[in-house]
Amino acid sequence: MAYLDWIDKRLPASEFVQKHVTGYPTPKNLNYLWNFGSLLGTFFVIQVLTGVWLAMYYKPDTALAFDSVQHIMRDVNYGWLMRYLHAIGATGIFFSMYIHMARGLYYGSFKSPRELLWWIGLLIFLAFMAEAFMGYLLPWGQMSFWGATVITNLFSTVPLYGPELTVWIRGDFAIGDATLTRFYSFHTTIFPFAIIGLLVIMHLSALHRVGSNNPDGIEYDKKGPAMVPFSPYFITKDAWFIALALTVFFYFIFFWPDAFIEPVNNEPANPLKTPLHIVPEWYFLSFYAILRSIPDKLGGAIAMGGSIFILFLLPYIDRSAVKSTRYRPIKKILIWVFFIDFILLGYVGMNAPDATSFVGLKMANLGVILTIIYFLFFALLPVLPYLEKPKLPTDRELPKGDQLA
Ligand code: HEM
């Protein structure tokens, strides 16, 4: 094709597509958990497009913000659709991100040579947490205001400079106009386009340097029979999965949009009236429970920060030579305890500390036990190689030319 030749002489377009799409070697045994990466990319595009559109109507001013969102919902053509896509899209991102991370944890995708890929992923996770936190302030509802008050208050626990730091972050003594305008600025510019955008590009570059892991956790020969080209095999599987996931997503958009929207946030922010229970969005609940499990504010903040920071250490903590949990009998039990523990922490975070939980304990006490189990998982990982005997795949033939990692 003459046009393509003209472009290729000036820009490596065909070479790029051949290297990263049509000729990119992908292990053929990937299961559906490997489709969440492309789903995350799709959700990210939805967030950017609907976000740019919302920014055309939204007013970042404490006197106007709440009403401008109501105006989008009621008067602007398809404004309700754009807002729901954006607000529920955040749930889509975090849901997919948790599955994507759990997949990495289960199949040992954080181990060599994918440490950097994992760390960049964790930075994306942190950046999205900040992005979602700032975005949540923008509708200027009761939970926006009080959620931001509680979380920015955490900085006051920093020794020596805590109170000054909190005022510096808020831009005022309390959450107010200065906070709203700076959160709006970060949320719509540097975070999505520079920080997250750049990290996602780095994430994909690192992925294409080392290649995908797979459910067996075995480093297959890139030119061996265990591989197929990404296109047409996985591009079609990704497309089918994205269509399926978006069907579920649109079910919520059209039939159950308030499933993920806190009712209290439909009331305008009122600094003089504290809501009975201040609860963050569902995707922060587990970490919120860890924060609350320690009565001391600084201790809680350290435990919460530590619960995320420890994920960065995984490549060094999990020292087994076998990547996939599929072949590790003890880690298999521990990892399921860990996943259930994380979900139960979410349940504790959702309820008031003095409420009684379904096991009869007060939420606060259950939170302490679950927090201990959370950290115990990471404490046990280094000793596991001494305790467990991995069961490697002896029952079926591995493709010729493939070696165990
Ligand atoms: C917007 C956020 C993200 C996007 C768009 C994204 C995108 C992708 C894509 C397209 C893949 C390849 C397909 C797949 O394996 O699913 C991938 C793989 C991977 N991602 Fe992400 N990702 C994101 C967040 C994260 C986070 C938060 C982590 C973990 C902390 C992470 C860790 C990984 C790892 C370890 C792999 C390699 C998995 C393997 O080959 O087994 N990613 N990512």
Give a brief description.
By secondary structure, this protein is mainly alpha-helical.
Structural account:
The chain has 405 residues and is mainly alpha-helical. It has two domains: 17-274, Cytochrome Bc1 Complex, Chain C (Up-down Bundle); 279-391, Helix Hairpins (Orthogonal Bundle), CATH 1.10.287. The chain has helices at 2-10, 13-22, 36-55, 65-74, 79-107, 115-137, 142-153, 162-170, 177-188, 190-210, 230-255, 285-292, 297-312, 314-317, 329-350, 363-380, 384-387; strands at 25-27, 227-229. It has a two-stranded antiparallel ribbon with strand order 1-2. The longest helix is centred in the N-terminal third of the chain and has 29 residues, at 79-107. The protein is globular and about 65 Å long. Bound molecules: protoporphyrin IX containing FE. Protoporphyrin IX containing FE binds next to helix 3, helix 5, helix 6 and helix 10.
Strand content: under 5%
The rough form would be described as: globular
What is the CATH C level class of the largest domain, in words?
A: Mainly Alpha
How many beta strands in the DSSP annotation? 2
Rg from C-alpha positions?
A: 23 Å
**Whole-number count of domains:** 2
Largest sheet: 2 strands, antiparallel
Order of helices and strands: HHEHHHHHHHHEHHHHHHH
| Fraction of residues in helix | 55-70%
Class computed from helices, strands and strand pairing: mainly alpha
Remind me, CATH topology of the largest domain? Cytochrome Bc1 Complex, Chain C
